[in-house]
Each structure stands twice: as C-alpha cells, then as structure tokens.
Design goal:
It contains 16 helices and 10 strands. The protein is α/β, with parallel strands linked by helices and about 375 residues long. It folds into 2 domains: about 170 residues, Rossmann fold; about 180 residues, no CATH class. The strands form 2 sheets. Strands 2-1-3-4-5 form a 5-stranded parallel beta sheet. Helix 7 links the parallel strand 6 and strand 7. The longest helix has 28 residues. It is globular and about 60 Å long. The model has no long low-confidence stretch (mean pLDDT about 95).
C-alpha cells in the first residue's frame, strides 16, 4: 500500500496533538530502518517519541502495511545521494509546522542528512552504523567538506556524534579528529529469544557460495540458511535452530546485534580462515569500506591502514580486530573457528558452558548493553 496518505495524516495529527509536558519529540529521515527502529525502542524508556521516516524498501522488514519507501518532499529515495540546498529548503518548508514541534533530530544513514536540520537550530544526534562518509567516498571534495562541517558542529555542540560499533568509531575518529563514543545496538525489537526446537545447523554467507561448499564437506550436517528456512525467513524460525555459521562481509551488521540479543549461538571464521575462504570466495569480508567495494583508492590525504585495501593483511587485521564479533563481552554467543573441521567438531557456546549459564550470560549482557547505550545517549537526551 502506498505510504503517502498515511504519512500526511500522521503528520497532521502530530501538528494538532497535545504534547505531554515531560515528553520530547525527535524526527528522523533515514535510508535504513534498523538503527532508528532500535533507538525508537530504547528512547521510549526516556519518554522520547521518535517520529520516523524511511526512504527505502527496508520498511518491509518492520511494517505490516505501508511497506514501500516513504515519500519525502525535497530529499527522497531518488536524490538522497546528491541533494541540493534547494532540496533542503523544500524539505524544511514542507515539514515546517511539524519541525516547529520537534525538540531534536536523529541522523543515521547517511551522515550527510545532518545537513537537513542544521539551519533549524535544534540538537542533532548522529548515530553512525557504517562508514560515515558515504555517499562521498569517491567524491573527494565533498568528503572533505563533510569532515570540516562535522568537526565544526561537533565542537560547537550542535551535533552529538556516536557510533554503534567500535570499527566505525575508530574509523570516523581518525578523520574527524575527535573521540567518538560507542553505543552498541540492542535490537530487542526482534521480540524472541533463542529456543532450540531442532538440530538445524545453518550457514549464512552473503555474496558467496560457501553454504554449498560446507554442505558438501559436512555431508549435509550444515545447510544453507535460505535453503532450509526460505528467502523470507522469520526470526522465530531462525531462533529455533541449533547454531548459525555466519561468514562476515563487514565488521558490524545489525543481524549480528539481533542474534546476540536473542541469544542465537553463532560461529564465525577467524581472520586466517577468512583469508583462506577468500581465495575461493571473494565476497568474504568484501565490504569493509566503500573504497574496497568500488575498488578505488582514496587520495593520499585519506589513505591509511583502514582505507588501503590493496595492502590486505594490515587492512583486514585493522577491521577484524575491531569487529563486533571479536568482542566476547558484547557477543558472548559467538565462537570463532579456524576451519570447517573445527566448526563441525567443537560444540556451540551453550553446549560448552551449559544452557542455564549461557542464558544467564545473555540476559546479563543485554542489561549491560542497554545500560551502556542509555548512558552514552544521556547527554544528548538531557540537551533536548
């Protein structure tokens, strides 16, 4: 169903409704839905209402109706990579009555959307889940302009810049010359916990055919996730399996945050095993930076260990060592394996530590991550 009438009605209702004296309102326009959906749940505990618009197909993962990309006057799914000052003006004019009622703004993907709100003089929270410079990676002058603008606005206190993972925190810190705090995503919107109902051991290896290779090597003891659960699998079905073998294409993904919070046992290759797999499957660890994805090195001023994909060993070590799944406190559900043989022979984490102890560890981890996230966001929320 087309989203336009629904969004117009909801905006009119917001303009006309009564805001509680102790409630704050934040607006977000985003290309992806996961991060803002996660923060919507988290901020509710602080009496903060998040008004969300998503200009991509990701709505289909979080809505039962109105699942298309949200229409957005001025800046939308067609021009988000190259919007102009005129587009920003039209965007602000269209939403002027609603924006007058907002206490602040949230930006996630892409970071450049912070430009939509700078002129409005209200606090802006940037939560960075992916290389912050996108879509300017190969538009070097625009990348440098973004850096200078962020440095100034962060220094002035107009922007609070936070990453949801260590890799992006360290990456953006290097360019912005400021310490970027980390607030890991919780993703308890999944709504279920791991409850094994079968002995399925499944492989998720995006952009590769590793699932087929492992199925053959393991005599079908390990099978492809989508082969068994289908292309549009539900979390309820996934959380009934014994263990997931996840082959990473990036250092941080929302799926791994979701799995950690839900307590799904996961096995992930060590860096040496990743490098072995890459000889047969180039898609492994293939999206560490947009420079790597486009096979275009940045100019020398922006070329360093984390962007020089041609010098693979130090480049991959930098990203792997900062990947979410290498942090056992953040993801106690994960075991690292150095070969298919180790994957097949060694027990999953709950089998190794005992089911009751495992469930307790996941529960404590979730409480800690939620508390850490709220503590990191608290200065911004107090400033609303």
């Amino acid at each position: 169903m087309w989203n336009g009438p629904f969004l117009l009605l909801s905006e009119l209702l917001l303009i006309a409704s009564t805001k509680k004296t102790d409630q704050k309102w934040i607006f977000s326009l985003d290309f992806h839905a996961s991060v803002t959906s996660d923060l919507n749940t988290l901020f509710r505990a602080r009496k903060v209402k998040l008004v969300r618009r998503v200009i991509s197909f990701h709505n289909r993962h979080f809505r039962r109706v109105f699942r298309f990309a949200d229409p957005s006057p001025g800046v939308n799914s067609k021009n988000w990579r190259r919007f102009t000052e005129r587009n920003v003006t039209w965007f602000q004019m269209f939403h002027s009555l609603m924006f007058a009622r907002m206490d602040g703004f949230l930006v996630s993907y892409p970071t450049s959307f912070m430009r939509l709100y700078l002129a409005l003089g209200k606090p802006i929270l940037v939560v960075n889940p992916i290389r912050y410079e996108h879509p300017f990676t190969n538009r070097h002058e625009e990348w440098s302009q973004l850096d200078e603008q962020l440095k100034i606005k962060i220094h002035e206190g107009a922007i609070t810049f936070i990453a949801n993972n260590r890799a992006d925190a360290d990456y953006s810190s290097h360019f912005l010359e400021v310490e970027v705090p980390v607030a890991p995503s919780i993703c308890d919107y999944v709504g279920f916990q791991w409850d094994q109902q079968n002995d399925f051991r499944l492989t998720y290896a995006h952009y590769t055919t590793i699932a087929m290779e492992l199925e053959k090597t393991s005599s079908s003891h390990w099978r492809g996730l989508r082969t068994v659960l289908g292309k549009s699998f539900s979390w309820k079905k996934l959380l009934a399996i014994e263990e997931l073998f996840y082959v990473p294409y990036a250092p941080s993904t929302m799926m791994l945050f979701e799995a950690a919070t839900a307590g799904l046992p996961v096995a992930i290759p060590t860096l040496d095993f990743i490098n072995e797999l890459r000889t047969r499957h180039p898609g492994v660890f293939s999206q560490l930076t947009f420079n790597q994805m486009t096979q275009t090195l940045p100019p020398h001023g922006k070329r360093w260990v984390a962007t020089n994909y041609e010098d693979w060993r130090p480049y991959s070590e930098w990203w792997y060592s900062r990947s979410d799944f290498t942090n056992t406190e953040l993801m106690p559900n994960v075991r690292l394996v150095g070969s298919f043989e180790q994957l097949m022979e060694e027990p999953s984490v709950p089998s190794r530590v005992g089911l009751e102890n495992y469930r307790r560890t996941v529960e404590l981890r979730n409480k800690h991550v939620r508390a850490q996230a709220l503590l990191t966001y608290e200065p911004f929320l107090k400033n609303l």
